[in-house]
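**Reference record**
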Amino acid sequence: MTMLHVERLGGLAGFGGPRARIRSCGCIELADLPDAARASVEALFRKPPPKRRSASTAADGFRYRLRCEIDGEERSIEVAETAVPAAVSACVHDELI
């Protein structure tokens, strides 16, 4: 089984940034996702959306870093919150560091 590691970044005043004392993260098995969500995540790894600033990545918008092992290789992508299926973002929880 393949574990998908999810980290929420950005947001209001950079919440979840490198200097923040709160980390928003979670993980979920790809096999546990509904078919549509799994297909959406797999499509993101095949062809991530272009990196550009838009309404979905506004100054106070969230981004998600998704990381998993694909074909024996660790892969990581960053996407706007609008590209992340609800079933994936739901696994994220906040923790004090």
In short: Residues 3-81+88-96 form one domain. The chain has one domain: 3-81+88-96. The mean pLDDT is 84.
